[in-house]
Each structure stands twice: as C-alpha cells, then as structure tokens.
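Quick one, T. Sequence first:
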Amino acid sequence: MAIDFEYIAIEMTILAAIIFGAVYVELWYYRRSQKKEDKKTKKMILRLIEEDLTRKQRFLEDSIKFKDYKPFFTNVWDSIILSGKQTLLSFELINNFEHSYSWMRYYNTELQQRGHVGNEQTLLELLGEIKKTIESSQSLFKQL
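Structure tokens:
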C-alpha cells in the first residue's frame, strides 16, 4: 500500500483550482450585482434631487411673487449626506448641489436671525443667488 504522491498532488491542484474558481465567480457576481445596485441608487438619487430642486424653484418664485419669505427645507440633501450615498455621484455634482443647498441654508439663517421685516432687500438678493444656483444645478441634469 504505497502512497502515490503524484496523484495526491494532482488531486490537490484540481481541488485548489475548483475552490479558487468558485470564489472568483462568486466575487465577480457580487461585484456585478453591486454595480447594478449602485447605478440604480445613483439614478434614484439624481431623480430625487432634480424633483426637489424643481419644487424649490417653484417655492422660490412664489416667495418672490407674494413676498412671503419662509425657510427652505434642505432635508433631501441632508438625508443623502447622512446616508453616505453622495459618494455615488461625481465630485462636480456633489460640489454643485452642496453649493445650492448651502445658499438655501444661508437664506434660512438670515431669515431666522433678522426676520423679513426691514431685511427684504437682502432676502431678495439671497433668493436671486439661490435661483442662479438651482438653474446651474438643473443645467447639469440636462448634461447627464
């Protein structure tokens, strides 16, 4: 009963190749499904931001038209940041969206600290800046 080391080496090599192949295929499939999920999530985030900015633009136009200065809600962008999903977007998009929402937060701060009485010109200027940044963000959506 002699042990043939050649057969053992061949069997171990074949077994190692099968295990390596199985791990490789599983990892490849996981990465592929993750890419699909990230692409779907990115598309949903962009649609959510686009709809939010459209609502903000209507809100802004109504504020100017009726001189009814109310704060903006920036919860959509805040929730994207808190979830960590902004990493799916390119740096240019993140930078642009953050710029738009930062102007909204600045407007909210001005409105809260000074109120709208006697501060109307400043608020109108800020609303003008917000309008520009929203239009800039919306132009990016057309390029996508």
